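HUMAN: I'm a chemist; might I ask for a sequence paired with its structure tokens?

ASSISTANT:
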Amino acid sequence: MAPITEVEGRRVALSNLDKVLYPATGFTKGEVLHYYASVADVLLPHLRDRPLSFLRYPDGADGERFFVKNVPPGTPEWVTTAEVPRSAGAARMVLVQDLPSLMWAANLVTEFHTPQWVAEAPGEADRLVLDLDPGAPATVVDCCRVALWLRERLAGDGITAYAKTSGSKGLHLLAAVRGASGERTSEYAKGLAVEAEKAMPELVLHRMTRSLRAGKVFVDWSQNAARKTTAAPYTLRARRVPTVSAPVTWEEVAGCEGAGGLEFRAEDVAGRVREFGDPMAAVLDASGAAELP
């Protein structure tokens, strides 16, 4: 039987704490839970009110991975859920609103993925996202070049962008927006990707065709669609080592000089939060949201 711990007055069952989930480093499930508890203050605001998709990897990063979108069987009654529309009808999904529900969800061994809208306004975008994905031999250094160009282009439309690592090879840019559907936001994001390709044809690609990606940065605009989700800031990723989708400063983006220059692991993040706070906190401030042109 899984041990029970109390988190802010809620009883949470935690299981298999010694199980190694990242064999390359020996990082255990207990360390996963400790990581999520240690970053809860900066992670929870990015999850709150957003219906979550969980990418589960209960047998570790080298094992089976699968997405869970509906409320999992056995979910405690005190975990908040919301009914949201789907193409095939309504579905009920989890909202991680507090530390107890974060610890319950982390015990399932998850990456946290969120849509660009909140449960109260499904399909109404409050964030714009651009996923910069390098095709080898391009690296995150090339993503940084593209990110800096996109930052200036967005600023020209009165939109302030913030950056985070994907936790894999690339970067994500996020911005707070208002008054647009997911379809309109996708259209705008695609236009930006096309402009970036025209400005840097040797480096940027806006089309999804994998055979064209070698040596280029694919600017994935499609994650703005209402049905799509993106790895949340501060989520662990199911990679060879426990990398994190970590918010970064623009100074770090501009100064990136190597392929591993913006790779951050679970053990790095608490120190970064002490030094920088949350570099992406402003994207949560609705008063700073911009209307799309």
DSSP finds seven helices and 17 strands in the chain. The mean pLDDT is 95. Residues 83 and 92 are 4 Å apart (CA to CA).
